[in-house]
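ok here's Warm temperature acclimation-related 65kDa protein, seq below lol
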Amino acid sequence: EREQCSRVHLDAITSDDDGSVYAFRGHHFLSITGDKFHSDTIESAFKELHSEVDAVFSYEGHLYMIKDSEVFVYKVGEPHTHLEGYPKPLKEELGIEGPVDAAFVCADKHIAHVIKGQTVYDVDLKATPRVPVKEGSITQFKRIDTAM
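and the structure came out like this:
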């Protein structure tokens, strides 16, 4: 039989520009910086968010955290600093109706790939306003919970 831990899923995972990795599940998150591990509740590190996230991606020194139909943005650092003016509606920030399942940005790129059901939306983060510039279907997987 498979190990019990192999049945555990993550709600979201991302890495920042410095290579730190953040993994989220339920009310908790784990961060890995170099060889140091840190575990805490989402509420204690990201007070405005309180708990559970649907998707998280990192872009230009900020963590974009999506919960339901809202986007919260935090500056990477200790402590993480909540950006004024957030949360904003997901539709306003990325041009997509929520909720979403996963999101990621490839290193040194400016396209957020946002997954909702069987559709992936590519959002140009340098554009104003931010809206999907490309849309595609995911047929290989029934469901995607997280991506990095």
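fwiw The first helix runs from residue 42 to 45. kinda neat tbh
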